[in-house]
Automatic annotation (TrEMBL), chain A:
Name of the featured protein: Putative ABC transporter, ATP-binding subunit
Molecular function via GO: ATP binding; ATP hydrolysis activity
UniProt keyword terms in alphabetical order: ATP-binding, Nodulation, Nucleotide-binding, Transport
Family, as annotated: Belongs to the ABC transporter superfamily.
Record's keyword annotation contains ATP-binding: yes
Record flagged with keyword Cytoplasm: no
Originating species: Thermosulfurimonas dismutans
One Pfam short name: ABC_tran
UniProtKB/TrEMBL annotation, chain B:
Pfam families listed in its UniProt record: ABC2_membrane
Domain of life according to the entry: Bacteria
UniProt entry keywords in alphabetical sequence: Cell membrane, Membrane, Transmembrane, Transmembrane helix, Transport
Similarity comment text for this entry: Belongs to the ABC-2 integral membrane protein family.
Organism: Thermosulfurimonas dismutans
Membrane topology: Multi-pass membrane protein
Transmembrane segments: 28-46, 53-70, 117-135, 141-165, 172-191, 228-246
Domain ABC transmembrane type-2: 23-249
Keyword 4Fe-4S set for record: no
PROSITE patterns for this protein: ABC_TM2
Compartment(s) of residence: Cell membrane; Membrane
GO terms under cellular component: plasma membrane
Protein name: Transport permease protein
């Protein structure tokens, strides 16, 4: 399958602290890649590097075969991002927010695109309401709609279900997965929820202290670590890594 | 390549915001109105009172209106940026396919809209209450205004640069930095009253040449070309520095990984 993202030997140092330590992976079109790891594992730093928000100390990031540092604007026009920790202007209406991002991403037929996405995400009735009146679940759905305004080929999602109640989180997961399958887009998804990771991901990367501990499809990881589920596999991988590093 | 649509996106975000926010619209008109009323009546009193200061209303109100152009253009640029920090929207903006130049041009356009509104209300009130017509400055008004706008944009870009560097703690500069230029600009008094050292410093402040020029036009009707050339030359340097400084601090923040933390 066609590779849309290649990360080679990615290193990020913050002063004396190494946040990412030689990270390598690729992402294929239509692939749903989950990144899991404890707090401070480097998940958000990795996403921020992929978005060009943080300059890597070393290594290479290539989207669609092009180097991110040299073709940032072009690449950003073909990818998008949503996070539960990043908001949208609360004083603008739901519709206006999508119009603004439609313009910023150079989308043609902005109104039609916004209308389609708002209907898809069940927000059409609220289009003229100020964004501040949305619940957290509705806000996340609006952030996702924003992230799909440019019909991206790669979607980066930073803990999109964090802080949502289980029912709404499930709805958001279904929407993401259905859209991903329908459009065939590649998704990178970070989460603390290993159950949701197992449900959604074609492949998972286990990250700890800026290093990839293991990667592969959830079932394969479970088999490799003799675990019943991804959560158990994750903890076994962590234990193994710690044992090796303590011994080393 | 610059894209007009993306610049329009930056402008639309602010226009939508102001269209729906009574407090922001009020802020746009409140201070210009209060300033023109308060200082206008005071100057009337001084001109007609025992001090008998000829053309004092013209000098003072002309200076006040032009000072607001500088201050409002600066604050429009920096507050537009702060609006995205306050609404936790900065990251969405920073990962949009928007070049820093397009973003700066968007902020400049927003400031032009805001300054036009403030200028209209101040010029109208000055005419209505004190019979002062700012347009009596004639064609010289255009280079004066352009120079003050440019200095305001430069200060705004430097403010944004400081916010990239030091985070939201630096936001106070959005309201304070322009006032560093107030005494040096000789807004309400001639350059000649300044002590020699400060006068030398003022000579390198573009706005000082604008206000000195304005007084010359009111006093004898001639456009002081020397001051205009100085102001324009200095502003080219200030604006280039402001844009460079903002870009440099943005790159520094990317290097240090602090952009996602701004506003946290």
């Amino acid at each position: 399958m066609e590779t849309v993202l290649e990360v080679r030997n990615l290193v990020k140092d913050f002063g004396g602290h190494r946040a990412l330590s030689g990270v390598n992976f690729v992402l294929s079109r239509r692939e749903f890649l989950g990144i899991i790891g404890p707090n401070g594992a480097g998940k958000t730093t990795l996403l921020n590097c992929l978005l060009g928000l943080i300059t890597p100390t070393k290594g290479e990031i290539r989207f669609f075969g092009l180097e991110l540092e040299k073709h940032q604007v072009y690449i950003l026009s073909r990818i998008n991002f949503a996070s539960n920790y990043v908001g949208l202007p609360l004083s603008l209406t739901v519709f206006e927010n999508l119009v603004v991002y439609g313009l910023l991403y150079g989308v043609s037929e902005i109104k039609a695109r916004a209308e389609r996405l708002l209907k898809l995400f069940g927000l059409w009735e609220m289009r003229n309401q100020k964004t501040r009146h949305l619940s957290s679940g509705q806000m996340m759905r609006l952030c996702l709609a924003k992230a799909l305004m440019n019909d991206p080929e790669v979607l980066l999602l930073d803990e999109p279900t964090a802080g949502l109640d289980p029912e709404i989180a499930e709805r958001v997961r279904k929407l993401i997965k259905a859209y991903q399958r329908e459009k065939g887009l590649a998704v990178i998804f970070t989460s603390h929820n290993l159950h949701e990771m197992e449900e959604l991901s074609d492949r998972v990367i286990l990250l700890n202290k800026g290093q990839i501990l293991a990667e592969g499809p959830p079932q394969e990881l479970c088999r490799r670590f003799g675990a019943k589920n991804l959560e158990e596999a994750f903890f076994k991988a962590l234990d193994l890594w710690e044992a090796e590093n303590v011994e080393g | 390549m610059l894209r007009a649509k993306r610049i329009l996106g930056v402008v639309a975000r602010q226009v939508f915001l102001y269209r729906r926010s009574f407090s922001r619209i009020l802020d746009l008109f409140y201070w210009p109105t209060m300033d023109i009323l308060l200082w206008g009546f005071l100057t009337l009193y001084l001109e007609r009172g025992t001090l008998h200061l000829p053309r004092f209303v013209s000098f003072f109100l002309g200076a006040l209106i032009l000072w607001h152009i500088l201050y409002r253009s600066q604050i429009a640029v920096s507050v537009s940026f702060l609006e995205d920090i306050w609404s936790r929207n900065l990251l969405n903006l920073m990962v949009a396919p928007l070049t820093l130049t397009e973003y700066m041009l968007g902020l400049i356009t927003v400031s032009l809209i805001k300054v036009s509104l403030a200028f209209t209300i101040m010029a109208s009130l000055a005419g209505l209450f004190y019979g002062f017509n700012i347009f009596k400055l004639g064609v010289s008004l255009i280079p004066f205004v352009v120079n003050l706008l440019a200095l305001g944009w430069a200060i705004g870009f430097v403010t944004i640069g400081f916010i990239f560097r030091f985070g939201q703690e630096a936001e106070i500069l959005a309201w304070a930095l322009a006032f560093v230029f107030l005494p040096l600009s000789a807004v309400f008094y001639p350059l000649s009253v300044l002590p020699p050292i400060i006068r030398d410093l003022a000579w390198f402040t573009p706005s000082a040449h604008v206000f000195e020029g304005m007084r010359a036009v009111i006093e004898n009707g001639t456009i002081p070309l020397r001051h205009l050339i100085w102001a324009t030359g200095l502003n080219l340097a200030y604006l280039s520095f402001g844009a460079w400084f903002m870009r440099r601090q943005y790159e520094y923040a990317r290097e240090k990984g602090t952009i996602p933390k701004i506003g946290e």
